[in-house]
Amino acid sequence: MRFALLYKLRNDYKNQNIIFIGCSLDDEIDLKTLSTWSFDYTDKDTLSRTIIFIKGKPSKLQQSKFKTFGITDVVCFQTFEEMYYFLLDTWNESTKIQEDELTKHNQFSMSFLKGTEIEKNQDYFLWGKGLFDLKKQIITYPYYFISRSIKETITKNINKNKVHLIYGSRLSGKSYLLADLYRAIRDREVFYFDGKSRITQTALEKLIEKRGIVSLFDIGTIGREQFEYILQSAQKININRSNFIINVNYNDSDTLGIVKWKLKQNIIQSTDILTYSLYNRFMNNKKTEELKEINKLLPTVHLPPCTFKRTLLDQLIYTENLLKKKGKFSTQHIKIQTPKQLALLIVLAIKEKIFSLEIVNFSFDLEIVEAAKRYDPFIERIETNIHEKDASDLSRIKYVLNSKYWLRRELGVYARKKDNYEIVGDAYRYIIKKIIDSCGHNEHKQRNICRNFILFDVINDIFLDEFHGNIELIVYIYTVLHELLAEDFHFLHQNSKCYLNYSYVLTNNCDKLDYLNKALELVKISKAMIENKYEEKNNERLLITLAHTQYTLATILCEICRIHNFLNIEENDSAINVISEAVYSPYNSDDFQRERKKKTVQGINSFMQNAINNYKELNISSENRNQLDKLINVFLLDY
């Protein structure tokens, strides 16, 4: 923990407003240590102030020492007592200011691009430029902006005063939907928090206490604990006639598990929340004409029409290839010379923002200044708001990513070259080592922070290319990180999923089996570690994680059975047993629903389809026949 405290002091000394009270600065070892950290005092003047309170007037010698320590302001008092009364009055005033800061999030201006502004519209489309400008406090709506069909459903449900969860893939238009809701709901206060913002627990509690409001939260604004807190406050939100609308990534199985866990414990009722699914393509049917609407607008700004077959990501890639152009900043590419430079971009690609304390923790001091200059306007330095600060992180400065698509596309281009694999691996190793250092012996904290960087879907998403990922690179990353994170059951599970996904792209059955067996070994170890942890802690949350490993284990076993043409009785029996564990878990029902609807030859779907088609001939033990019958009934439900 001493490193965490040291990093926090370093961040405060470099970026915060610091006050020395009655300190002579003579022979102060701790202060001298802080002052030896290299940074430009010229920047300090523009970012924050270093103030000293002294009794009386300073001598010329004292003034000289003040300059040595980067003191920007000297405040003179008659007595020491006056200093503390002054601080108390200032603190009382600051608590009033915090209330005003929160209201900034419901007073945004709205701007609408014209069809004649072709270049600006194409910047938003081709670069995934964020709609919300933090500095100007403006939400910009491109000319091609349309309302998705579920927007009308959500607005009709506002009078029910609920917690609304909007599920969608990582590129399905969830952020656009929130911006649409902000402009559509005009009969009450609407608070909007985009993915580049964060909110402290204190500010969140104040929001929940408000009456008759709508709060919109994009992905990345709230943490897992805050998400749970909102769920637990669902009835209070209802009593206050308010609505909390939250974007959730559809493949975030932990979030889905939290909801099910709260329902199972009766902490929340099913009537407390409303859920919606946002498709990652535009629809055209009896209920909606999204596709027709957007295709009327795209040609005006020189963009090709969409089709139902193409996802939003497919449409972006298709447009780039068709027009042979990208956007206003198409010549701006990432330039990587060191693993730290790449590590910074990976962190930004995942988090969309990085605060000054994190910059200190990762030792990105030089890299972030260079990146902000080199990649302007994609990376921007801005001041944090009061409601984003708490005792654990008082960062005054944050750097935000203004175009997720630009950076992920650039990372994808970079990662396609196998010559760059080593530096990618070094960058990930650097990130994880820094997280481990900053967390000290806090295993739970380390696991939670690392989780955001080691999820298979996240890694696959940030190295964007026309094939939707680079599986060989991901295999390499997990191999590099294995020694550092082998004691983390989350990591082993994600590593297992990586090997499973890699087996799908291999053509040789021997190679497939090799990676499937590696995946099987890792998921079994992960499952055993979680079971041991549950025995120690008896924490029911671990059952959510356990359920996900059961589902992965079942998928791997089914795939092995498929490769062996379902001829091995022992393998078939094992698969049936594990499928039953996975499917009947209350935390996995959604996963199974999604798998059943996939028209592929992989996983549980393939096994169960074969069991139905070859029921009499399937090689299983007589003891498992009844269990199989029950599974078939579950599988055939709604078919």
Please explain how this structure is put together:
- With 639 residues, this protein is α/β, with parallel strands linked by helices.
- 56% of the residues lie in helices and 10% in strands.
- The chain contains 29 helices and 14 strands.
- The strands form four sheets. A five-stranded parallel beta sheet has the order 8-9-10-7-11.
- The mean pLDDT is 85.
Based on helices, strands and strand pairing, what is the structural class? alpha/beta
Total number of strands: 14
**Estimated radius of gyration:** 27 Å
The biggest sheet amounts to:
5 strands, parallel
Strand percentage lies at 5-15%
Sequence stretches where pLDDT stays below 50 over 5 or more residues? none
List the helices and strands and how they pair.
Layout: H1 2-15, E1 18-21, H2 29-35, H3 41-47, E2 50-55, H4 60-68, E3 73-77, H5 80-103, E4 109-112, H6 118-127, E5 132-133, E6 138-141, H7 149-157, E7 163-168, H8 174-184, E8 189-193, H9 201-209, E9 213-217, H10 224-232, H11 234-239, E10 243-249, H12 253-264, E11 273-278, H13 290-297, H14 312-323, H15 339-351, E12 353-355, H16 356-362, H17 365-374, E13 379-383, E14 397-401, H18 404-415, H19 421-439, H20 443-454, H21 456-462, H22 471-485, H23 489-505, H24 509-537, H25 541-563, H26 569-584, H27 589-596, H28 603-613, H29 625-636
Parallel strand pairs: 1-2, 2-3, 4-6, 7-10, 7-11, 8-9, 9-10
Antiparallel strand pairs: 5-6, 12-14, 13-14
Helix pairs in contact: 1-16, 10-12, 12-25, 15-19, 19-20, 19-22, 22-23, 23-24, 23-25, 24-25, 25-26, 25-28
